[in-house]
Amino acid sequence: MTATPSVTPIVRDAEWLAHRYDPGHDAFHFRRVARAQRTSVAFLTDGHLGEEKAPTIVSRGDCAAARTGADAPLHFLFHSAYCASTMLVQALDQPGAATSLSEPVLLNDMVGWRRRGADPRDHGRVMSDALALLGRGFGPDEAVVIKPSNIFNPLARGALMLRPDARAILLYAPLRDFLLSVARKGLWCRLWCRELLEGYLADGFVQLGFEPRDYFRQSDLQVAAVGWLAQQQAFAALLAWAPDRIAALDSETLTRDPAAAVAAAMDHYAIAGDRAAIPAHPALTRNSKSGEPFAPGERQDDLAAAEAAYGDEVEKIVGWAAAVADGAGIPLTLPHALLPR
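^ that's the sequence the OP posted. Answer follows.
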């Protein structure tokens, strides 16, 4: 039987990933995840890391007592799905300069707890502690970039308020590309879009003028478009709120020249590192989901195939969504671009 490590080495070692939060016991669950394992999977979820049957559980108070020194620079990559966000966040992981986290479950727990009625003051305190535990680099000079799941987007402003020195990039796919991706991925993706919208409605995140019954009359791609519009509306509000800290990036610009986009992201986050090494980074040479070698133009080919199969349906929904966006004052292209389109 292996003895449980003491609290201090766990809290001070980034290899111990803060994985879950249990509000009933006010405790964090940790699991050991080496850097190489983090960068080899798309998401830091049990489905990708494997189930942890015996997590190390540490009370939140003990975690706070064990932390010492200044926190590492912490930044965010918020996204609206199907926009190459995993590729970008993985490419920002450079030993000695920055470490990145792709969709840690701990932040999903923050969303779920809030939806179940967490007291806002308690939630804010725990969120701050959660960000501190996630914001541990592997080296003393490493910044940390977190890419939350897009279910976290309703909490994005709160996270940025808790970390006033943090900077953010808002990554999104153009509406047409997003809808083509949804259509191409099939039934499970259309169902996921409905689940996402259900959560956003519970969060009060959708302010588009629809009545609750309207969603029952919408097609799958209309529902997907509503979710996209809600996120685009929130992203535009974030940019207006803190334009000095936040920049926008679209997937078309990112995938056209990934190395340039990664370099621009590093500049935005003030991350040191070798810009000349970016083109050879493994994240830019493999499919972030499958791990297979990435063929140049693969994303564009996939979208072209979806266009051939679903173009007519998508065209109608894009026109409808553009009218909704116009009525709600939502820009289809966000300002404050990280790079010119």
